[in-house]
Amino acid sequence: MGGMRRFLTSRGFPARAALALTAAAAATALAGCSSSGRSDPYKIGALPTADTVTKGHAPGHWTKDGAALALVGTVTPGSAAEFTAALSPGTKVVRATVTGGDLADGLAIGRAIHDRKLDLVISGACAGPCADYWFPAAASRRTAGSGSWLGYVPDLSQSPQATPEQQAAEAKLYADSGLDSTKFHTALATQLREVPGGSAAPGAKMWMAGQADLKAMGYPEQAVKGLWLPPNLASANAQARAWGQVVAYQNTLVGLPPAPAAPAATVPPAPSSAQKQGQ
User: Which residues, other chains included, contact 170 with Cβ-Cβ below 8 Å and sequence gap of 6+?
Assistant: First the structure.
């Protein structure tokens, strides 16, 4: 599917999408509403703290928390071995705040999640291998409060560097997890469209899916109804911007930095009395 991979551009927004993104810039100030008790008119959800974002983009390490194993950060080569070493008979849950990382190790972790019938709790970002592999592999999935999102990326089947063994293992995980890989890959290709020549907009590196997208991929209502995922463009834009990601959401590019304000027009100073007399 490598030839199918395309990217979105910021050009050609529907009028309502452009309005939603403009509103999102103002709405970001309200985004902490869900945690502060104030109203959240744009349904943005709680935005992460700067510390959470920093940790989410740094290499992660597995930590134990009772019956849960938690990872905050990116998946790195060696993450799968660390995960396996940390597993115990009492492990029941994987807690993830993941912005991306190594797909091969992420796939191995996904296989273990499936085989051990572990539950997945998403806190904030679940991107890259977390969305591609851990989400379908989990026995159950839930989000920890508002402000969570899935970020799908082209998987190993779309990577020329992946080995045939890795691609076969990926296909088996999808099949064993009940994920319709054809629907998944079609949806991903549809969302990640190429940037036309000459566009200065950065390309979307991942796709932020909503509940309707998950249902279209074949997830049953029961599997997704309890998930908080961005429900609209304003929410998706605020979440993507907070995490420093440019992503595709509903065929629209979100997470772009705010456009710089136009410089104020300069008004020449009024002539002084002396200047007037000299005239």
Answer: 107, 133, 155, 156, 157, 162
- State the total domains in the chain: 1
Q: With a threshold of 0.85, does the pTM exceed it?
A: no
- Check if the beta carbon of residue 252 is closer than 8 Å to that of residue 8: yes
* Residue 160, number of CB atoms within 10 A of its CB: 5
272 found inside a domain? no
Please, which residues bridge with residue 264 across strands? none
Query: Range of 230's domain?
Result: 2-260
Q: State the amino acid at position 60 in one-letter form.
A: G
CATH value at residue 234: 3.90.226
Cα separation of 34 and 202, whole Å? 30
Per-residue pLDDT tens over the stretch 90-110: 999 999 999 999 999 999 999
User: In the chain, which residues have pLDDT < 50?
Assistant: 1-37, 196-200
165-201 burial code (b ≥16 CB/10 A, e <16) = ebbebbeebbeebebbbeebbebbbebbbebeeeeee
Q: Is residue 157 in some structural domain?
A: yes
Residue 275 is assigned to a structural domain of this protein: no
If you ran DSSP here, which 8-state letter would residue 100 be given? -
